[in-house]
Write a structure and sequence with these properties.
- The chain has 330 residues and is an alpha/beta fold.
- It folds into 2 domains: 4-48 and 161-329, Rossmann fold (3-Layer(aba) Sandwich); 49-158, Rossmann fold.
- It is built from 10 helices and 10 strands.
- It has helices at 23-29, 49-62, 77-89, 112-119, 133-146, 165-180, 196-207, 223-240, 268-281, 290-303; strands at residues 19-21, 32-37, 67-73, 92-98, 123-127, 151-154, 187-192, 214-218, 253-255, 311-316.
- The strands form 2 sheets. The chain has a 6-stranded mixed β-sheet, with helices on both faces.
- Helix 3 links the parallel strand 3 and strand 4.
Length: 330
């Protein structure tokens, strides 16, 4: 394995983030529930993308870039954290943000993450649902180069082999906390979208030779499609670490039963999960990722797929700023 500490990184995260027991939710669910608080990473509202941006900005700085360019949905948590990282380290920031079908519109265009993107000084390129984000972004990058700038494309969700290294680091952090707190954890549950968080977490566990299962609740596609997406990226991350990519085989577990009609579209189960966490633990989830992942955890526990009395670790990947864009849903 390559020396992990030699990989370029710009320190941003308030780490280690807390790993805390949720007693009232645990009693309500009938299992032991621990929350890894990556909503507390500290960058403009926090969230999981902060960890990925440490490595992506390290790579951007090494390449001499002066402008960050990224793509996302209009209420992208990733875009908000990219804008914050750009502001913190003096990069320009260009956000290509696409409208998302089926989302509540009363506050969607001006509140939540969009409000914060503007406060952070990012230049927003708002695209319609029918526009091609990749084509537009390619043209934007060429335009920036023609203007003498040095753009760096931050991938969707920060989820490539470089960005995923942030969750290799997080896996090590979790293992240290489990050891220090003398915990036994049966499974990690997280929201799985662009795949970098789950792939990085699995790569970190594989590197540490730990067999702890990681269940990814898909927020945008089927079980099969999400599994293929995560496994492909996991293989890339393992190769990046100098490990055998074939160790990815059999390690990826996903569940695509809980994203509803589509990405960012509210479900009754998500609304219930967000309210239960808020009212039992004072814990704010988000409507797009963690709300749906928690809805999945709750339903799987109710079905008995997650066993009574088992010890579950839920990775809270942040995104609560998105609640303000979904006011009408709640």
């Amino acid at each position: 394995m390559k020396d992990f500490n030699l990989i370029p990184r710009m320190e941003i995260t308030h780490a280690p983030t807390p790993l805390e027991f949720a007693p009232r939710l645990s009693e309500d669910l009938g299992c032991h529930l621990f929350i890894k608080r990556d909503d507390c990473t500290g960058l403009a509202g926090g969230g999981n993308k902060t960890r990925k941006l440490e490595y992506l900005l390290g790579d951007a700085r090494q390449q001499g870039a002066d402008t960050l360019v990224t793509i996302g949905g209009l209420q992208s948590n990733h875009a908000r954290q990219t804008a914050a990282a750009a502001a913190k380290f003096g990069f320009g920031c260009e956000l290509v943000l696409e409208d998302v079908t089926g989302t509540p519109k009363a506050d969607y265009y001006h509140n939540g993450n969009v409000l914060l993107d503007n406060l952070l000084g990012a230049h927003i390129h708002r695209l319609d649902i029918t526009d091609d984000c990749d084509v537009y972004t390619g043209s934007l990058i060429e335009k920036l180069k023609a203007e003498g700038k040095k753009p760096y494309l931050v991938p969707l969700g920060g989820s490539n082999a470089v960005g995923s290294l942030g969750y290799v680091r997080c896996a090590n952090e979790i293992l240290q906390q489990i050891a220090t707190q003398e915990l036994v954890i049966d499974q990690i549950v997280l929201a799985s979208g662009s795949a970098g968080t789950q792939a990085g977490m699995l790569a970190g566990l594989i590197a540490a030779k730990v067999e702890l299962p990681v269940m990814g609740i898909a927020v945008s596609c089927s079980t099969e499609d999400q599994q293929q997406l995560v496994e492909a990226l996991l293989r890339q991350v393992l190769a990046q670490l100098g490990l055998d990519p074939n160790q990815a085989k059999g390690r990826v577990v996903t569940n695509g039963s809980y994203f509803g009609e589509g990405y960012g579209m509210a479900t009754e189960a998500m609304i219930t999960a967000v309210k239960r966490c808020a009212q039992l633990e004072g814990l704010l989830l988000d409507p797009v990722y963690t709300g749906k992942a928690m809805a999945g955890l709750m339903d799987l526990r109710a079905q008995g797929v997650i066993a009574a009395g088992s010890k579950q670790l839920f990775l809270h990947t942040g995104g609560s700023a998105g609640l303000f864009a979904y006011r009408e849903v709640f």
